[in-house]
């Protein structure tokens, strides 16, 4: 039976301080999310188990829209920070096995790890800027709830779910996941972090966009998508798992279609 290596052991053995610092960073990012990420609402108030448009009645959605008119709107900087730290919290656990933890000295390991993580984080900062622009744009055209931050448009949800589902079935998705597991040693840690982050971004872009369907701060969707991207990176052959997840998204889109008929 094949065991899954999460990478925590090698990380701590190679450099205890750097390893604990990396794990602490992940924990702090999750605590930031659970505290509400500066969104002026309790995270449980922004969370629904399932697709909000399906599990909430029209009256509940209308009441939520009316309440949003008196809520404090997050700033551009606050929204970008929310997205960035959320991406680190969601994506970093799956990278632990692939971190460059080998080195001749502890200082070298710490520096390599820091440079790798800074390059990796830079990629997700770029995504966070894009996601923030998307969020503001979707709110402005009444497609996204202004405070709950989930889709209020059935067609938009269907398109995103179908797109994410279809991408899960492609060879391109499999190629980028495979590339995430390859660690060339000839590159600098910074460039390696950028390259690794880019592969993670291309493999997970539409998965992360599904937060617009279920809720950007919906803890059920955040945890669910985090588990998906982590398992995809850790499985030695994730193709079948990715395909199964893709089919689930397509079925979810079909459910929304049926509910609107």
UniProtKB/TrEMBL annotation:
InterPro entries tied to this protein: PpoB2-like (IPR018688)
Pfam families per the UniProt record, alphabetical: PpoB2 (PF09948)
Chain ranges passing through the membrane: 12-33, 71-92, 113-138, 150-169, 200-228, 240-258
Tagged with keyword Transmembrane helix: yes
Keyword vocabulary terms for this entry: Membrane, Transmembrane, Transmembrane helix
Highest taxon above the source species: Bacteria
Protein name: Metal-binding protein
